[in-house]
Every structure is written in C-alpha cells, then in structure tokens.
Design brief:
Layout (H helix, E strand, L loop, with lengths): L2 E2 L5 H10 L5 H12 L13 H10 E2 L4 E7 L5 E8 L2 E9 L4 E4 L3 E3 L8 H5 L1 E4 L2 H19 L8 E4 L9 H12 L11 E5 L3 H10 L3 E5 L5 H7 L8 H12 L7 E7 L7 H13 L7 E7 L13 H13 L4 E3 L24 H17 L5
Parallel strand pairs: 1-2, 6-9, 9-10, 10-11, 11-12, 12-13, 13-14
Antiparallel strand pairs: 3-4, 4-5, 5-6, 7-8
Helix pairs in contact: 1-2, 5-6, 7-9, 10-11
The structure holds S-adenosyl-L-homocysteine and iron/sulfur cluster (SF4).
S-adenosyl-L-homocysteine (SAH) binds next to strand 10 and strand 12.
Length: 378
Amino acid sequence: MTVNLLDYDLEGLAVFCERLGEKRFRAVQLFRWIHQKGAASFDDMSDLAKSLREKLKVGAHVKALDVISEHISSDGTIKWLFDVGGGDAVEAVFIPEVDRGTLCISSQAGCAVGCRFCSTGHQGFSRNLRAGEIVAQLWFAEHFLRKHLQRNERVISNVVMMGMGEPLQNYSELLPALRVMLDDHGYGLSRRRVTVSTSGVVPMMDRLAQDCPVALAVSLHAPDDALRDNLVPLNKKYPIAELLEACNRYLAYAPRDFITFEYCMLDGVNDQAEHAHQLVSLVRQYASGGVWCKFNLIPFNPFPASGLIRSAPEQVKAFAAILSDAGIVTTIRKTRGDDIDAACGQLAGDVKDRTGISQRIARQRTVMLKPFAAFKET
Ligand code: SAH
Ligand code: SF4
C-alpha cells in the first residue's frame, strides 16, 4: 500500500520524509510541488534528487478524486461531483465574485446530524472523508481553474466548509486539511478566509479554538430550544445556551471579532417577526454581554422530501430589518448556481448516472470560458 501525500500537512510530510531517510526540508519542496504547482507526478518535480523521486514512486502517490460530473451555472458558479468510492459522492462548489473566489467543500459523505431542511441530512451518514479527500477538492479546483483561466497566481481566495457533512464530527481529518490550506508552503490562505461551519458540536468548537482558530460560522436556525431541537437534532445534546457560551469562548481566539450565525429561512416555521425579536434578545441578553455576531439569512433551497417551503422574499427582508434595526449586522445570502442545483443544501447529485460523463464534461467546458472571463481577483 502506498500513501497518498494529499493526506499530510507539512509536519506529516516531514515525518514521512524522515522515514525515507531524507532531510526534513525536502518535505517543503515536495509540499510546494504538490500544492502550489499542482504536480501529481514525481517525474515533474525536477529539483528533487532522482534517488528521492525513485523512493517516492515506490512508497507514495498524489491522488485527487475522480470527477463524476461538472456543472457550470450561467452565473459562473461551478459544481463538481467527486467519486469517493463505495457508491458515495461528495460535492464542491466554486463561487466567483469580483473581489474573491470562494470554494465550498465537503467534509463527510452524508451527515449524521440529520437537520430537517438539509438534503445531505436526509441522506444519512455514510463515512468521514480522509484529510486527503478534503484537500483534494481544493487541490483539484485550484489547479483546474488556474489552467482554464491561464493564470499562474491563486484563483481560490476563500474556503468555506459548508458542503456536505458536519466538519466538527470529522475533526481528526479536518485539522490536517485546514493546516494544508493555511500553510504558506501550501495554499497560504489567511485564517480569516477559511471558514468552518458547524451545527454546534460544542466540545469540538473548543478544540478548534486551541488547535487552529479559523473563522467560524454557526448554524443557528431557531431562537429557542424547542424549535431548534426539531430543526437541528444535535441541539438536544448541545442546547442553545451551551452553544452561545462556546461561541463566546471561541471569540477569544477567532481571527474575526464576531461569529456568523447562519439562519435558514423556512416559511411559517422560523421566519416570523416574533422569532426575529427573540433572536435579538437571545444574542443581546446572553450572559449580560451577549455574543458579538452577525446574521446571514439563507433562503431555504427546497427539496421534495423536506416538506418545507422557502420564505417569501418580503418575509426575509422584514426579518432582516428587525435584526438590523436592533444593530445586528445582517446579510441575506444571494443564491448562486440555482440552475445547476449548487445552492446550499442541494448538494445531493445523482451518483448512479455515470454514463457519458466525460463527453458531457468536455461539451460543458467549451461554454464555460465565458463566465470565467468575467471573474477577476483584485
Ligand atoms: N454541517 C455544517 C456545514 C454544512 S451545511 C452546518 O450545518 O453548518 C452548510 C450550511 O447550509 C448550513 O448553515 C446549513 O444550515 C445550510 N443548509 C443546509 N440545507 C439547506 C437548505 N436546504 N437550504 C438552505 N440552506 C441549507
Ligand atoms: Fe449535517 Fe449541516 Fe446538513 Fe445539518 S445542515 S444535516 S449538520 S450538513
């Protein structure tokens, strides 16, 4: 069995090099070849000694994930469905904006939390992704985009762990993956530009604060425990008061001085004026100091099995106005990639239909270059 070098952060790679009888600094060269230059073949790594390359060929490989499908939206959003074996697939979505390129990636195949409004939750849990499978989504997207944009510099400026799965229920694999993203010899992303989104796994929020405090988004979705128990079953284990305390502890380490609360707007369920007022008192009165936070309202992306309906745009605006009037910064998430089912909670994909995939991908790429041309990083 050879090892996949995408599984290693720089320290892990240094240990691996030592085991091969090589100096630790070789790991830096190797790491840069893999992550900064996108090399997958040891023969391409021209400044590594031939003897090292031969050893690597015997004991290691660089293996990304196979692409099952690729969809390009009219707004430039691209969604990839990756094969992770055993009939499972995960998705990553690239969202180009004028001043940034964001990649939304997955941490698990399926999810055990089972939120009512989430299609991944409805699928159930299949398995944790390995660190290398998390990193592979970024590795593939970054180098694919560079090639197609004919750019030498970085295309992806932000990573959000908001694809499939609960990242804090896969902590041991998440951590090395985050370190690869942040490492200056890897993708060199700042801690402010890497966001972990969680449904509220309280003990792991504390671990993350110690080990690798990146930006944190917390999926709140309800102002009281009765409603949140129903929407986010994990709330029964870590109720709102505990969650908010954990948010405040996290803030002492966070790269930003606020927590982003995500709130999925469900018609008639959690989108009434009274819910907004309750939220204001919750984040304001808590522990006398409240939680420094910002709200991001997400229009619900419906799927048939949920039995839920998206709140009307006027309802979302009125809800946002109550929070804003109380002095809480509130944004309404633009839905991107709607036409290719790449919006939040729609990351399910039809894994079974793999026929003619490569032909379809090739056809799509010819139309893709137009939305790409509109994207410039400043
Ligand atoms: N498990 C983590 C991260 C993945 S979900 C979490 O729950 O935070 C990322 C975001 O998408 C979460 O805020 C989640 O609430 C939201 N989401 C899930 N399903 C959705 C849907 N159908 N419509 C809109 N947002 C959804
Ligand atoms: Fe899991 Fe997040 Fe979906 Fe909830 S919203 S089921 S935690 S992926």
